[in-house]
Amino acid sequence: MAAITNPRVPFTNSISGGMSLGRKMVVKGGISPGSNGFSLDLVCGSDEIAMHFHIRFDELHIVRNSLISGNWGAEERSGGMPLIKGEPFEAQFECKEDCFRVELNGKHFCNYTHRTPYHKITHVKGDGDVLINQITFEG
């Protein structure tokens, strides 16, 4: 099981072996009490974002989107805000055939339909006001 431990935010780390069907990325961390939000991105090479997962506390939404050929797609904002400032969190992204299945703190949050082939994903990026303790890849 590959792991990224205590990365300094912002960070970009390669995903050993990339993403594949059934593979899970588990992110464990903490959210500061004054956080405006943070993002986790699954990136293809240097210029495409397969999945942008942006926690926005000021809007009480978690925005999902993709950046393909320099253009952002349609934002997905359903699901509200299950994360709480000042508390630890766990986010799990499971690569399914047609989507990423996302769980937050052990509860299903959303499915994000693949807009780009998942096998092209090479890196994970993190940015914003968050402390990441560990990112693991299973499967």
Automatic annotation (TrEMBL):
The lineage of its organism: Eukaryota, Metazoa, Ecdysozoa, Arthropoda, Hexapoda. This is Galectin. It holds the Pfam family Gal-bind_lectin. Keywords: Lectin, Repeat. InterPro entries: ConA-like_dom_sf, Galectin-like, Galectin_CRD. It comes from the Eukaryota. PANTHER family: GALECTIN. PROSITE patterns: GALECTIN. One of its GO terms (molecular function) is carbohydrate binding. SUPFAM superfamilies: Concanavalin A-like lectins/glucanases (SSF49899). It comes from Spodoptera litura. The keyword Repeat applies. Residues 11-138 form the Galectin domain.
